[in-house]
Amino acid sequence: MWLYNNIPFEEIPETAYGYVYLITNTVTGRKYIGKKLFWFRKTKQVKGKKKRIKVESDWRDYWSSSEEVKKDVEAVGTDKFIREILHICPNKGSCNYLEAREQMDRRVLETEDYYNGQVQCRVHKTHIKNLKA
User: Of 113, 133, 103, which is closest to residue 31 (Cα–Cα)?
Assistant: First the structure.
């Protein structure tokens, strides 16, 4: 189960494209900052023509792209982890930016308290124009 503002999160808001999350291992205290998109585009054949459709991702059961996190989840069980949504994002660019900002603010590469092993980001100023407040 995902939590958002300490409340179980089950339904995708209409304007949401993805989210930035924090996974915490309650046994070791280690954490992981990442992002996940709620949707992906898929091509479907309709009456001989290709049509792009929007399909919900596996976000409900997602446990990170980190092999180390997945290995620990397998070893100690899902009940020993807390999955929190930090930011709900309106587009992919804002997801990229907010993930990188959280990683930099928390200095995830400078400590063993985080599973994160790299920080990658490609964002244009127009991607985050609606985040400025």
Answer: 113
Contact 21, 33 (CB under 8 A): yes
Model pTM score:
0.86
- Give the confidence band of 27 by pLDDT, cuts at 50, 70, 90: very high
Residues 121, 46: contact at Cβ < 8 Å? no
CA–CA separation, 95 and 127 (whole Å): 9
Separation CA 69–CA 52 (nearest Å): 33
Write out the chain in H/E/C secondary structure: CEEECCEEECCCCCCCCEEEEEEEECCCCCEEEEEEECEEEEEEEECCEEEEEEEECCHHHCCCCCHHHHHHHHHHCHHHEEEEEEEEECCHHHHHHHHHHHHHHCCHHHCCCECCCCCCCCCCHHHHCCCCC
Q: Half-sphere exposure of residue 100, counting CA atoms within 13 Å on the CB side?
A: 13
Average pLDDT, the chain: 91
Cα 91 from Cα 88, distance rounded (Å): 9
